[in-house]
Fold this protein.
Amino acid sequence: MDTTMARNERRLMVPPVRIMEDESEVLAQLEMPGVTREGLEIKVDGNTLTIDGKRSDEVPTARYLVRERRHEDYHKAFTIDESVDRDGISADLVDGILTLRLRVREAAKPRKITVG
């Protein structure tokens, strides 16, 4: 078996995600174990929100005897609509869970209309 390619190969994995919303924001939580803040790249380009995460659990000088965990990086892309305030997106990473908060623009929030 040729292991040269397998040793250097980096795989992309789609992280599990949970998305919730209320009147003021959309909350997305992605499971990304092994990713640090420095290994994250979050971009908004038009209507696409892209998340890339590089795992940092590899030891470059180590000679592995057993290695059952694959070296996988994460990639996820979402389409966001015009109701999301592009400047109101924030992110936090705690214990391998990336939490994105996407603030809803004021004009897109539901409002109650009083009948006169």
In short: Confidence is low (pLDDT under 50) at residues 1-6.
